[in-house]
Design a protein that fits this description.
Elements lengths: L1 H28 L25 H12 L11 H4 L13 E2 L5 E2 L25 H10 L9 H9 L2 H11 L7 H12 L8 H6 L8 H13 L22 E3 L7 H10 L8 H4 L7 E3 L21 H13 L5 H12 L25 H13 L1
Antiparallel strand pairs: 1-2, 3-4
Helix pairs in contact: 2-7, 4-7, 9-13, 12-13
């Protein structure tokens, strides 16, 4: 009886500590949120007032998302690293960009359900989908365009885009870098995956998930995991759009079990949000990733170093909670995480506007020289 009481007490203390961490984090930011575990998938995506969704804008954004001509070499698109015909990522530890460059040190997250992220990228450096859409296009490793003006100039040379941008954004200066980002973000807001087995379970269908998955929920809650993985997307307790929810990883790098994982998977090589803020307190802090569709998001963590979800669960237990899980606990937790896989929209490849009797890709070598000069500055 005493042993059972001690075990129960430890679980209560873990949960209380986790909630205290959550409360402290919120207090620092002065943000009021509702602490809750999970919940039904949101019925609609947040849409900014200055970028309303229309069918024409969605269609244009989809073309731009798939169009490799937005890259320096004309062979890398948003779709290259964020495959919407599959899981929204590329299933590689690290992505390959223009000229075969490797996008170190971070694994590309899925674009599915990115519309619900309050900030974008692992380090939260973009406060909206629109801001995120601009980043890879001008990143020298990813799509490699030297500047926004050259992106606009290239699209202006495509007759079909001139007409489509005019229909969506009007006759006055229709093709701008802001409009390009707004169109891509609008398409990305259609990439949502509702109606997972877990969603059906919380609606009342208690047969929608297995008994193992239900046990997994209880284990996760007993450890206080919702202190970080909160809310219906399991990534945020409700901070407003543009305000990130960050946690340190790993929390316990010197825990003997965690230390082995740190060494094997290089978990402390990336300084995380520190690269954005340059605040020493932000070292190794990352945007908390969603658990939605996590079963399909291998490899795991910010550097894509862990191959399986089972191992990722063990790493999190050791490095965040100081816990070593049994095989049964891992099985139950993974069963629950599997139940968060939603229904993916049926995507088709768009037809891209052509440039009859000519090509717009003759300036690649000159643009590369411009990009290299920009990098050196």
């Amino acid at each position: 009886m005493e042993k059972s009481d001690n075990l129960y007490g430890r679980k209560r203390r873990r949960l209380a500590t986790a909630r205290a961490v959550l409360a402290a984090g919120l207090g620092l930011g002065g943000i009021a949120v509702a602490f809750a575990f999970g919940g039904e998938f949101p019925s609609k995506v947040p849409v900014p007032a200055d970028n309303p969704m229309t069918p024409a804008k969605i269609s244009l954004g989809k073309q731009l998302f798939f169009d490799p001509r937005l890259s320096l070499t004309g062979d890398v698109s948003c779709q290259t690293c964020h495959d919407v015909m599959s899981n929204g990522s590329d299933s590689l530890p690290l992505a390959f960009g223009v000229l075969g460059r490797v996008d170190t040190p971070r694994h590309p997250p899925s674009v599915f359900n990115a519309a619900f992220n309050t900030v974008q990228f692992w380090d939260g450096r973009a406060n909206s989908l629109e801001a995120q859409a601009k980043g890879p296009i001008l990143n020298p490793v990813e799509m490699g365009m030297p500047n926004a003006a050259d992106v606009v100039k290239r699209l202006q040379e495509i007759p079909g885009y001139r007409e489509e941008f005019r229909k969506v954004f009007g006759d006055k200066d229709p093709i701008t870098f802001d409009h390009i980002a707004q169109a891509i973000a609008t398409y990305e807001r259609t990439l949502v995956t509702p109606d997972s087995p877990y969603d059906r379970y919380v609606k009342g269908d208690k047969t929608a998930i297995s008994s193992d998955a239900q046990a997994g929920i209880n284990i996760i809650r007993s450890f206080g995991c919702e202190a970080c993985h909160a809310g219906p997307m399991f990534d945020n307790p409700g901070t407003p759009m543009g305000t990130g929810w960050f946690q340190k990883f790993p929390v316990q790098p010197h825990n003997p079990v965690c230390a082995k994982y740190v060494q094997k998977y290089h978990l402390t090589d990336d300084l995380g949000r520190f690269d954005v803020t340059h605040n020493p307190a932000d070292k190794h802090f990352f945007k908390v990733p969603s658990w939605r569709n996590v079963a399909l998001q291998a490899p795991y963590f910010q550097n894509g170093s862990v191959r399986t979800l089972q191992t990722a669960v063990r790493v999190m237990a050791a490095c965040q909670l100081g816990q070593t899980l049994t095989d049964k606990q891992v099985t139950d937790i993974v069963s629950f995480l599997d139940s968060l896989t939603g229904k993916f929209p049926k995507e088709t490849m768009p037809r891209l506007p052509e440039t009859p009797n000519t090509t717009i890709m003759m300036d690649v070598s000159q643009l590369q020289k411009t990009a290299e000069k920009t990098e050196k500055k």
